[in-house]
Amino acid sequence: MNIPKLSFTILPDLFAICKLAARENLPSWAFRGGFSSVTQTPEELSIVCPQNLVPAGVEATKGWKSLKIEAKLDFEMVGIVSSITSSMAEAGISIFAVSTFNTDYFFIKEEDLGSGVAALRKAGHEVR
Predict the structure, then answer these.
(1) Predicted pLDDT at 39
(2) 88 near 67, Cβ under 8 Å?
(3) DSSP label at residue 116
(4) Contact at 8 Å (CB) between 15 and 54?
(5) Where are the domains of the chain?
């Protein structure tokens, strides 16, 4: 598998990964930051957004930093997510990934950021 060397940017916010009831209305607080991601399934409504936007009482895991791939990724590219998750797994780092039409975002706990950046650089990637 020939994975191109990628450039990552660390987003400035700390993020939360939230879980709401499956049929709950989309809350307006989730869309007030620069990045948010919403996924609805029959079982749950998941929201990723800056943690300072999450109201008290919402089930959430906080303290996540995001690494954004600074490239528009073609759908024909194979192995990008696998390459990144393998590098993080080798370093013992748990991740949460969000893919958009254009690119991918990888969320790692704030305390693992240094080790995560080191793992990406070891794999030949650039992190700014």
Answers:
(1) 94
(2) no
(3) H
(4) no
(5) 7-127
Confidence class for position 7, pLDDT limits 50, 70, 90: confident
What are the start-end ranges of the H helices in the chain?
A: 80-90, 113-122
What is the rounded distance in angstroms from the CA atom of residue 37 to the CA atom of residue 106? 12
Beta carbons within 8 Å of 89's beta carbon, 6+ residues apart: none
What gap in Å lies between CA 85 and CA 67, rounded to an integer? 12
Q: Which residues contact 80 (CB under 8 A, 6 or more apart)?
A: 3, 6, 69, 73, 104
Query: What is the token pair recorded at 93?
Result: 């780092």
58 token code pair: 């919402």
Helix axes 113-122, 80-90, angle to 10 degrees: 120
The CATH H-level (homologous superfamily) assignment of domain 7-127 is: VC0802-like (3.30.2130.10)
Map residue 43 onto helix, strand or coil: coil
Q: How far apart are alpha carbons 57 and 77 in whole angstroms?
A: 40
